[in-house]
Amino acid sequence: MLWLLLSVQLMEFLWVLFNYLGIERTSTEPTVKSVGDIHLSFMPYSHSIASGVLLGLLAWLLIGKGLRNPVAGLAVGIGVVSHLVLDLITHAPDIALGPAFAVAGAMSACSPSDVSSRSRPARAA
Question: Are 48 and 96 a contacting pair, CB within 8 Å?
Fold first, then answer.
């Protein structure tokens, strides 16, 4: 049961990790009063269609084949992909087909080099 609960949030866990590592970018308004004040500027690795499908297949393979539990593997794989489906329904049109398409501007109006001054300050080296 824990695997299923974690599976639907796998993309979010990766999004937080990739933001922390500086791979993906999120910016905010000076004062965050609602979710609308958070801008997902660049997230092609954690939240693209190709990444979501690949993560779902990988989860299915690892659990279904690797741990020899095909029912749990299928459930976890569907859980991962269900997050993507719900994001496609609820997000602004900011989800790319895949990481390669994000650089070409398919993510949103912001490219990785065009993160506004509202983004989080750079970490000291």
Answer: yes
Which conformational region is residue 120 in: left (phi greater than 0), alpha (psi within -120 to 50 degrees), or beta?
beta
- pLDDT tens column, 48-62: 999 999 999 999 999
pTM over 0.85: no
Measured CA to CA, the distance from residue 87 to residue 49 in angstroms comes to 10
pLDDT tens-digit map of 15-32 = 999 999 999 999 999 999
With 0-12 / 13-18 / 19 or more C-beta atoms within 10 angstroms meaning exposed / middle / buried, residue 81 is buried
* CA atoms within a 13 Å half-sphere pointing along the CA-CB vector of 6: 9
